[in-house]
Amino acid sequence: MTERKPLKKSTIKMADSSLKIPLGNSEEVKTISIESKENLTMDSIEEQESVAEAKLSQEEHRRQLIEELDQLIENLRILQAEYPPPSNSSKQQSDQKEMRSNQFSPGMSLTVLQRMRNTINEDILDMDTWRGIWYMVNYSLESQRDLLRRRMAGDYQVDEWGYDEEVLQTVAPFFTFMYKTYWRIQTNGMEKIPGEGRTLLVCNHSGQLPWDGAMLGTAIYNEHPNQRLVRTLLASWFPTLPFFSMMFTKLGQVLATEENGIRLLEQEQLVSVFPEGIKGVSKTYWDRYRLARFGRGGFVRMALKTSTPMIPVSIVGAEETYISLFKVPIIAKMIGFPFFPISITWPWTGPFGFVPIPTKWYIDFGDPIPTVEYGPGAENNLVLVSQLTDQVRNVVQDMIWSRLVKRKSVIYG
Amino acid sequence: MADKKVILVTGVSDYWGTNIASRLLEKFESLEEQDYSVIGLDSEPPSVEIKGLDFIQADIRNPLLVDLLKSEHVNTLCHLAFLESVRNSEAAFDYNVMGTMKLLGACSEAGVRKVILKSSTSVYGAYPTNPAFITEEHPVQGSRDYGYNRNLVEIEAFCNGFRRQVPEMILTILRFVNIVGPKADTPMTRFLKEPFAPVLIGFDPLMQMVHELDVLDALLFAIQNDVPGAYNYAADGILPLSRVIALAGKIPFPVFHPFAYLGVGITQNMRFPTTKYWPIELDFLRYSCVVDTQKMHNELSISPRYTAEEALREFAGDQRLRRYMPERSALAYDEERLRDTMERRKRVREQALDENHL
Fold first, then answer.
1. Per-residue confidence (pLDDT) for residue A11, from 0 to 100
2. DSSP assignment of B230-293, as one string?
3. What's the CA gap between B180 and A62, in Å, rounded?
4. Domain assignment present for A339
5. What confidence score (pLDDT) does residue A380 get?
6. Domain stop point among A148, A181, A200
7. Residue A44, in any domain of the structure
8. In A, which residues are within 8 Å of B207 by CB distance?
9. What is the CATH number of the domain that holds A290?
10. pLDDT at position B271, please?
11. Are residues A123 and A230 part of one domain?
């Protein structure tokens, strides 16, 4: 196979590590398997000669595992010649780590840790490790260069709403950081969102900047088994802002008009609405968690027209990200903003006024409210529309209160 | 006499008129139809000779046009005469808007059965409140900053009323999205012909494209079939502006939008090259104006052959080639003319031969 003949020690060690170290990410897997693949023939020859039978079965088992892994990686590489396979979702990784550490007693896990540390130290002295790292770096550099070249040549696709998946994947780490580390968001009832099909999420809006919409999208993108893309319907003010308009379109967000909403739902998409709109997002600290009027019921008409179930969503914690003391309508009118808040940090500290407070957030999904039983033409029934609007509003408000009952601290949850 | 197809094409000296007239003639010839005639109308004769075209030199605002339409028994009119000027010039307004109004009036007077107008989807205007897909029923409320767009909006507004006044006439309005192609001269091609494409910082609107040949096909289809009403006409594919520029091989030149608006506002009506670089209204570089093509697909049995991407790629390829051989278009034109001359001489010779035999 290859002319190089690495030491046997390293072979076994690599095999060891591939079994014992919880695999960090796919790139690690790749490095290990590349090296172990080269040593495979050596293994099989020496096994036949010297290793005892009991050990043989173990070796055999191990070899099979490595072979399988190699096969998988080889298949992946054939399928996607240019790109590294996507990394495991971080949720899976952390779950795996937790599960493993629970299985060991404290003393044992210390030993495991010690052994892991030893292998790492030895690895640094090993040429193969460095070759692996070089391979990794080279690989990622090449894919970056390729991405850049394709973007420059215009060789990419967007869907008819302007959603660009590559842009989403580029900014996703930032939002995931805000989601996991900064606000430590906890979701409940994610299983109520169906894996596919039209669904309308109805949420409360708060927090001066639309972080809550971004976090709802991040939550479902990260935690939902189908990684569904949330299409948030946004206020017509955002498209007039530079950068915001561009980013929102590329991330698959759509202007809030009834035509757009109906079209999205008919395409079986997951749509989220914030019916409170600007009134909700501009709430001062004194009005926090008290829902504003739920628009003109446009979202209910959308749901009735397309027979879409509505899922009420409450987001708790976003209200305290900025502490808005009062609003100054005169300045807002002068600079053409829908509102201008005065918070404890804005506008006194300049750009630092945009830094949100790291509160603990909870996103709760309620039980779906079906609309299919009202039949066609129900969207023209004004009484029904206003009733349903109030019903959804009350459900969301109740969900917020029941979460606030359980919340002990704003920062620690 | 009633069955005879008499088609009048206005603006026959321009790119669109010339091509429509010659394609119509070609088509009729290939179908071996006898009763047809294509009349071309313009204030100047076409620069390329069109075989079989009955050219009449006149202005579309001429009051005697009614008599011409009557005496020639015109039953289909394809109105392509349009002065495209960025400046809000009174002359262009008079020619475009008043000309169209007078022409349509003459048509209703002379009992012309069908009128086809070429319009643009820019009449809807680019606004942040636009729905993501604009249908034909959307009000025509485009901005009136740029001359050509203002004229189109005026014409469309007039047509709305005209359609109600003269319900028996088949009035087809084809609203095309940005037209690109190697030969046509449109605001979009002018925007993409400069090496730098000035864009607005932080805005990347969605755009649609259609190839020039598809435009001609659509116009021909409307001439040959009865499709009353307004139609959006766009090729498949919706591209962000950044991708349009990348596909055309241009370098984006970002400008902060308040400055751009200020600059265009001040210099628009002066002889200053700002609008040379911004032949497209700034709003269209800021907000998306994407139209719904459902009606086109359902009711017209013709759809564009080129996708937006293919159209742009072809345009870019031609631009690249033009760098190395600027005489290319002139050469093609020369060739055409030589072929015509040869054919004409052959005809003359044959005639002389026939006469000799007699």
1. 41
2. EEEE--S--EEHHHHHHHTTPEEEEE-HHHHHHHHHHHTTTT-THHHH--S-HHHHHS---B--
3. 62
4. no
5. 92
6. A148
7. yes
8. none
9. 3.40.1130.10
10. 66
11. no
Q: How large is the average pLDDT for residues B344-357? A: 72
Q: Do residues A139 and A224 share a domain?
A: no
B-chain CB neighbours of A156 within 8 Å are 243
Predicted confidence band of residue B200 (pLDDT cuts 50, 70, 90): very high
CB contact under 8 A, B129 and A236: yes
Interface confidence (ipTM) of the complex: 0.83
Q: For residue A182, tell me if it sits in a domain.
A: yes
Name the helix (H) or strand (E) containing A383. helix A382-406
Given a cut of 50, whether residue B208 has pLDDT beyond it is: yes
Q: What is the C-alpha separation between A390 and A395, in angstroms, rounded?
A: 9
Instruction: Please give the torsion angle defined by the CA atoms of residues A174, A177, A179 and A184, in that order, rounded to the nearest 10 degrees.
Output: -160
Average pLDDT, chain B: 87
What is the rounded distance in angstroms from the CA atom of residue A193 to the CA atom of residue A309? 10
- CB of B257 closer than 8 Å to CB of B283: no
Write out the residue range of the structural domain in which residue A125 sits: 8-148
Question: How confident is the model at residue A13, as a pLDDT?
Answer: 43
Nearest CA in chain B to A163: B240
Global confidence as pTM: 0.77
Indicate if the pLDDT at residue A18 is higher than 60.
Answer: no
Instruction: Let me know whether A27 and A75 are in one domain.
Output: yes
Q: Is B128 on the interface with A (CB under 8 A)?
A: yes
Write the residue in A152, A161, A254 that is nearest to B246 by C-beta.
Answer: A152
Closest CB to A263: pick one of B133, B202, B240.
B133
Is residue A25's pLDDT more than 50?
A: no
Q: How far is B283 from chain A (nearest CA, A)?
A: 10
Q: Minimal Cα distance from A160: which residue of B? A: B238
C-alpha to C-alpha distance for A140 and A83, rounded to whole angstroms: 8
CB contact under 8 A, A158 and B243: yes
